[in-house]
Design goal:
The complex is a heterodimer of chains A (about 280) and B (about 325). Chain A is mostly helical and about 280 residues long. Chain A contains 13 helices and no strands.
Chain lengths: ~280, ~325
C-alpha cells in the first residue's frame, strides 16, 4: 500500500516536471515568435500593438525585407554569403581531405607534426588574424573582393576538417590499402575513387557545419569587406541592429529572419548531422 | 596515435602500373621519377599548408611582431619593446575590459553550462524528450548576429522585456537595460546563454547515455535517492564531458565579440567592452595597431592555455 502511494506521488511529480519543462521550452522559443510577428508589422503598428498581437497584414514582411535590403544591402549579402558558404566549405572539404589523406595514408615524414601545424589553426582567437589580414589584403588588392573573402573562408575551415578527416582515415586505412592494391591504383586514383567515396559521411557533416559557420560569420565580413556587394549577410544585418543600428524594429526583425532561413532549413533537413556536430565538438568553429 | 600513421603504403606501391616510360624500363625508374614518387605524398598536403600557413599562421606571427611596435598602419612601425603591454596593464579601460571578460566567463559557466547540466539530468527521463530538446536547441542554429538583433529588441526601452514587466505590473523593474554597467554585461550574458544552452545540454545528454544503466539500478537498489544518484554517480561519471563543456565555455567567453559589438559596440563609455572588443576598437577605430596586438596576444595566451587542456581531452577522445 505504501509503495503504491509513493509511486502515485512519483508519477505526479513527473507530470509536474514535464509541465514545467514544456513551459520552459515554450518560453525559450517565444523570442522566435516575436521576431516573426514583428517582422510582419509596420513600424507604427509595432509600436502601438501588443507584442504578441497578430499583424494586420502579414504580407508587410515583404515590404520590410525590401526596405531593410535598401538600407543595408542585406539582399546582396544573401547572395554573397551563399557563394562564400557553399564554395568556401566545398573548397575546404576537398583541400582538407587531400591533406588528411597524405597525413593518414601516404608515406611522408613526421605526419603528426604536419597534422599539428595545420590543426593549430583552430587554437588561436580570431583577434590574432585581423590586423595582418587587413593589411595583407589591402596590399595585394584582395580587400573588399569576393575572391578575398572566399580565400579566407576556405582557409579558416581547413584545420577542423583535417581533424575530422584524419580520424576517419586512420580508421579506414586497412580497407583502403587492400582495395587499392587489388585495383593496382595510383595514389591519386586511390584518393579520388576509393578514399573520397568512402568518406561521404564525414564530408557531408563537415560541409554542413562549415557552411553554417561561414554563413553565420560577422567579424571577418566586418574587417575584410565594406561594399554592399561583397559584405556577407550577417555584417549587413549588424548595420541594421543594436544600439547603433539604423533600421526600424520591423526591418531589423525581417532582416534577422531572412538571414536565418538557410541555416534553419539545413538544420531541419539534416538535424542528425547538426547534433552529431556538437558531439564531435566544433571547438568554436 | 602518430605511430599508426607510419603504416607504410608499400603493398600499394608494388602494384602501381606506372607511366609508359616506367614500363619500358621497369627495373630502373629515372631519377626524375624517383624524385616525383618521393615528393608526391607531400603535394596532397601543399594546398592545406599554403592556405593555413599563408593566411592564418603567418597572421599569428605578424600580430605578435606588431604587438612590440608603435604602428598606425600608415607610417612605418617603430620598435616599442614591451611598452604596449605595460600600457595595457596600466590602462583602466583594459582592466575593466578584463573584468567584464571574467564576468562573461563566470556567467557562462553558471547559465549555459550549469543550466545545461540541470536540464539534461531532468530531461533524460522525460517521454517527450526529442521535441523539448529540439525546441531548446533551436536558438543555437541562429547566428550570434541574429541573436544580438533579437535581444536588442528585447532590451530596448519600449522593447519586449520592459513592456512585459509593465504588463504584469512590475513597472518598478523596468529600466534601460543596455545603458548602465554591470546591467548591460549581465543582460548580454543572458542573451548569449539563450544560444549556448542547447549545445551544452545535448553534450550532457550524450554523456548521461554512456552511463551504464545497471550502475544506476544497482545504486537504486542500495537505496540511493535522486540527489545521491546525481552527486555520487552521474556527476563523477560525466567528468570527461564536463571538462570539455567547461573548457569550451571558458574559451568561448574569452573570445566574446560579435554579440557585444552588435548590441552596444562595447559602450556606452566603453563600459561593456570585452577583451576582443577592446582589441577591435584599438585596431580599427583608433588605429593603435601595437596596443591592439598586445591585447590580442594577452587574450591568446589565456585562450591557448585553456585550449591545451581541451586538446588533451579531445585528442584522447578522438574516437568519439
Amino acid at each position: 500500500m505504501i509503495q503504491r502511494l509513493s509511486t502515485g506521488k512519483q508519477s505526479l511529480d513527473r507530470y509536474l516536471v514535464l509541465g514545467l519543462l514544456c513551459l520552459f521550452a515554450l518560453a525559450w522559443v517565444t523570442p522566435l515568435a516575436i521576431v516573426t510577428l514583428s517582422s510582419m508589422k509596420t513600424p507604427r503598428e509595432q509600436s502601438q500593438s501588443a507584442i504578441l498581437a497578430l499583424p494586420e497584414n502579414a504580407a508587410m514582411i515583404l515590404d520590410n525585407i525590401a526596405s531593410a535590403s535598401e538600407l543595408s544591402g542585406i539582399g546582396n549579402g544573401l547572395v554573397s554569403s551563399l557563394i562564400y558558404a557553399s564554395v568556401g566549405s566545398l573548397t575546404a572539404v576537398i583541400v582538407a581531405s587531400s591533406a588528411a589523406y597524405s597525413i593518414a595514408m601516404l608515406k611522408i615524414r613526421f605526419p603528426f607534426f604536419w597534422f599539428l601545424i595545420i590543426y593549430s589553426g583552430t587554437v588561436f582567437p580570431f583577434q590574432m588574424y585581423l590586423m595582418p589580414l587587413f593589411q595583407m589584403y589591402q596590399t595585394v588588392g584582395l580587400y573588399d573582393t569576393r575572391a578575398g573573402m572566399l580565400l579566407f573562408y576556405s582557409a579558416i575551415a581547413v584545420p577542423f576538417c583535417i581533424f575530422v578527416f584524419r580520424n576517419y582515415f586512420i580508421g579506414m586505412q586497412g580497407e583502403v590499402i587492400e582495395a587499392a592494391s587489388l585495383d593496382g591504383a595510383s595514389s591519386f586514383q586511390t584518393w579520388l575513387r576509393i578514399v573520397l567515396p568512402m568518406a561521404k559521411a564525414p564530408a557531408l557533416f563537415l560541409f554542413v557545419t562549415q557552411f553554417s559557420w561561414i554563413w553565420n560569420d560577422f567579424l571577418f565580413g566586418q574587417v575584410l569587406a565594406k561594399s554592399d556587394d561583397v559584405r556577407p549577410v550577417m555584417t549587413s544585418l549588424a548595420m541594421l541592429s543594436g544600439t547603433y543600428g539604423k533600421g526600424s524594429i520591423p526591418q531589423q526583425m525581417a532582416g534577422a529572419l531572412t538571414a536565418s532561413i538557410p541555416t534553419l532549413i539545413l538544420f531541419f533537413a539534416l538535424q542528425k548531422h547538426f547534433m552529431r556536430g556538437i558531439v564531435l565538438n566544433t571547438a568554436g568553429e | 596515435m602518430p605511430e599508426t600513421n607510419q603504416v607504410s603504403t608499400e603493398p600499394l606501391r608494388h602494384k602501381v602500373p606506372g607511366t609508359p616510360l616506367d614500363r619500358a624500363s621497369p627495373a630502373a625508374p629515372t631519377r626524375a621519377q624517383a624524385l616525383f614518387r618521393k615528393i608526391e605524398p607531400y603535394l596532397y598536403l601543399l594546398p592545406a599548408l599554403l592556405l593555413v600557413g599563408g593566411l592564418l599562421l603567418y597572421s599569428v606571427a605578424h600580430t605578435i611582431a606588431i604587438s612590440f611596435t608603435d604602428w598606425d598602419l600608415i607610417t612605418p612601425p617603430l620598435f616599442a619593446g614591451l611598452k604596449n603591454y605595460i600600457d595595457a596593464i596600466r590602462d583602466p579601460t583594459f582592466t575593466r575590459s578584463f573584468t567584464n571578460t571574467l564576468v562573461w566567463t563566470g556567467g557562462s559557466l553558471l547559465l549555459p553550462v550549469g543550466g545545461g547540466l540541470l536540464l539534461a539530468v531532468v530531461l533524460e527521463r522525460i517521454p517527450g524528450q526529442r521535441v523539448l530538446k529540439t525546441l531548446i536547441y533551436l536558438p543555437a542554429i541562429l547566428s550570434t548576429t541574429v541573436v544580438a538583433a533579437i535581444w536588442s529588441y528585447v532590451y530596448t526601452n519600449h522593447g519586449v522585456l520592459n513592456e512585459t514587466l509593465r504588463w504584469v505590473g512590475l513597472d518598478a523593474l523596468t529600466r534601460p537595460w543596455m545603458v548602465f554597467a554591470p546591467t548591460n554585461t549581465l543582460a548580454m550574458i543572458v542573451a548569449s546563454s539563450w544560444r549556448a544552452l542547447g549545445p551544452s545540454m545535448v553534450l550532457f545528454l550524450v554523456g548521461l547515455q554512456t552511463i551504464p544503466p545497471e550502475l544506476i539500478e544497482a545504486a537504486k537498489i542500495d537505496g540511493a535517492g535522486e540527489r545521491t544518484l546525481f552527486w555520487r554517480i552521474k556527476l563523477p561519471l560525466l567528468r570527461p564531458i564536463t571538462a570539455i563543456v567547461v573548457i569550451m565555455s571558458v574559451i568561448g567567453s574569452f573570445m566574446t565579440f560579435d554579440l557585444v559589438w552588435v548590441m552596444t559596440q562595447g559602450g556606452p563609455g566603453r563600459s561593456s567592452e570585452t577583451l576582443a572588443v577592446t582589441m577591435y576598437r584599438q585596431a580599427f577605430i583608433m588605429w593603435r595597431m601595437g596596443y591592439a596586438g598586445a591585447v590580442a596576444v594577452i587574450l591568446s595566451t589565456i585562450v591557448i592555455a585553456f585550449s591545451v587542456f581541451y586538446l588533451r581531452a579531445t585528442l584522447k577522445r578522438s574516437a568519439l
